[in-house]
Write a structure and sequence with these properties.
2-enoyl-CoA Hydratase, Chain A, domain 1; 16 strands; eight-stranded mixed sheet; 515 residues; single chain; binds hexanoyl-coenzyme A; alpha/beta; 3 domains
Length: 515
């Protein structure tokens, strides 16, 4: 073949590879309002930075007539490029090729990329749109999946792994994203292990794909997904934003941006934000937004267990993770789901050198059989465990209530937090005044001539003694009682001071977090 012909041949093959499952299937994808795998990658990565790997790989199965139906690239587009200049590995499942279903060769492409990302120490992003195991390939497909899963686990805590679900994510396709750090789901996408037909046969339940495993189901009910967005474009923007808070790997710090806000900015409105009545709610999101850089907060898991807030923000340009009780939902109690939610977020931050700022206003744990039977003990313990093992810089601010076990859990001094502040409105006690008086003075109240009056007097006395931060401060369990308006400046100053903190856990194979 002559030089020119060789080039022509390469161009022909490249053109063929670009078409994936063919023009008809690309049109069908567009008709569903979906982008193709390559269009998604092009939108996410910096212009002209994508370098595709394994463009000419084809499946190797000859059963069920597949030998006559080989597609260049085989159902997944893989490669690397840059997002805001930072290197990232990326794969996008191509629904136009056998419904994006996974063959052994397809898995091999992802495995190669996972190994590369680990060697280079860069994040890996998976854009999911797949019908699961390629049924024609049988156990080869299962083997391929497991090769990918293994690498998901080995990469966990070494490089950030992020998944976006933009179409079906069926059967075996769910487990790889489930083991990554974050899942974004686009409206209309769905994730399930067993589809509606199987569900109907087994349980007689008649459900649609959306009811079974749609974006809101996994954001609100199961907690499998961390973000829900309305469109693919929104998903791309969110991926870029999320990426901006996350380092390249566990040995690097998260990127530091040019500060957008005055580090000494005082907010006088914080001095009066806590209501006079201890049982009146206020919005902790408002508190967070008044304190962080330019009011910008990327909330994670927003729809799941909203009595606990988790998310990313910046202080003087540096990324932090925020964990906060939300008194506006269920009075901010900790529960089964919020324990899991918080623990997972704290562990992510700890893996990737992201300091944690914790805002505390928690009256205790959610009571009830649903909670106890649902394992509130082990799930609350997850959050306690996560804080105790976290060695990243940690600052805690008690804004109001810190009662009982929840005081211990919420990044208290005793869990190795570095700087613990309390606002003058803080109430730190074993339990609230009403409950404490009922237990401590049960006999006296029973025998009193005027139990109501005695109860009020005792509650007032208890409140006087414990409903303030000074008893705790006198024991050194908090470092300082600060004015709410100066919280931002105090956090930024503290973060600078503890920036080079060194702490470690005893050598071990791994701990045994109560799963
Ligand atoms: C082979 C598949 C496929 C699969 C879809 N296709 N899924 N081919 N293996 N798993 C093919 C279809 O046959 C079809 O080809 C094309 O992809 C597009 O699929 P449609 O069904 O037309 O698309 P849509 O109507 O949008 O439905 C999407 C879908 C549906 C809901 C995902 O395709 C579906 O239910 N697929 C099977 C899902 C599933 O049960 N997967 C689990 C596999 S077992 P043609 O040529 O007809 O257009 C598994 C276990 C692994 O994953 C466990 C590992 C731990």
């Amino acid at each position: 073949m002559k030089g020119e012909d060789r080039l022509k041949n390469l161009e022909d093959l490249e053109r063929e590879a670009l078409l994936g499952g063919g023009e008809k299937r690309i049109k069908a994808q567009h008709d569903k309002g979906k982008l193709t795998a390559r269009e998604r990658i092009d939108l996410l990565l910096d212009k002209n930075t994508f370098r595709e790997t394994d463009k000419f790989v084809t499946h190797r199965c000859a059963d069920f007539g597949l030998d006559k139906n080989r597609v260049l690239g085989d159902g997944v587009v893989t490669g690397y490029g840059r997002i805001n200049g930072r290197v990232v590995c990326i794969f996008a499942e191509d629904f136009t090729v056998f419904g994006g279903s996974l063959s052994l060769a397809y898995a091999g492409k992802i495995v190669k990329l996972q190994d590369l990302a680990m060697k280079m120490g860069c994040p890996i992003i998976g854009l999911k749109d797949s019908g699961g195991a390629r049924i024609q390939e049988g156990v080869d497909s299962l083997a391929g999946y497991t090769d990918v899963f293994l690498r998901n686990v080995l990469a966990s805590g070494v490089i950030p792994q992020i998944s976006a679900v933009l179409g079906p994510c069926a059967g075996g396709a769910v487990y790889s994203p489930a083991m990554t750090d974050f899942i974004i789901m686009v409206a209309g996408s769905y994730m399930f292990l067993t589809g509606p037909d199987v569900v109907k046969a087994a349980t007689h339940e008649d459900v649609t794909y959306d009811e079974l495993g749609g974006a809101m189901v996994h954001n609100e009910k199961s907690g499998v997904a961390h973000f829900a967005v309305d469109s693919e474009l929104e998903c791309i923007e969110l991926l870029k934003r999320l990426f901006s808070f996350i380092p390249q790997n566990n040995l690097e710090d998260p990127p530091s941006l040019e500060p957008t806000d005055d580090p000494n900015r005082m907010d006088k409105s914080l001095d009066t934000i806590i209501p006079d009545s201890p049982n009146k709610p206020y919005d902790m999101l408002e508190v967070i937004k008044k304190i962080v850089d330019s009011g910008e907060f990327l909330e994670v898991h927003r729809h799941y267990a909203p009595n606990l807030i988790v998310g990313f923000a910046r202080f003087n340009g540096k990324a932090v993770g925020v964990v906060a009780n939300q008194p506006a939902v269920l009075a901010g109690v900790l529960g089964r789901n919020s324990g899991m939610k918080g623990a997972r977020f704290v562990r992510f931050c700890d893996c990737f050198n992201i300091p944690i700022i914790t805002f505390v206003d928690v009256p205790g744990f959610l009571p009830g059989t649903a909670q106890e039977w649902g394992g509130v003990i082990k799930n609350g313990a997850k959050l306690l465990y996560a804080f105790c093992e976290a060695t990243v810089p940690r600052i805690t601010i008690i804004t109001r209530k810190a009662y009982g076990g929840a005081y211990c859990v919420m990044s208290s001094k005793h869990t190795r937090a570095d700087v613990n502040f309390a606002w003058p409105s803080a109430e730190i006690a074993v339990m609230g005044p009403d409950g404490a008086v009922k237990i401590l003075y049960r006999k006296q109240l029973k025998e009193a001539k005027d139990p109501k009056a005695l109860e009020k007097k005792l509650i007032d006395e208890y409140t006087q003694k414990f409903a303030n931060p000074f008893v705790t401060a006198s024991k050194g369990y908090i470092d300082a009682v600060i004015r709410p308006s100066e919280t931002r400046a105090r956090i930024i100053e503290s973060l600078e001071i503890i920036e080079n903190k060194r702490d470690s856990n005893p050598p071990k194979k791994h701990g045994n977090i109560p799963l």
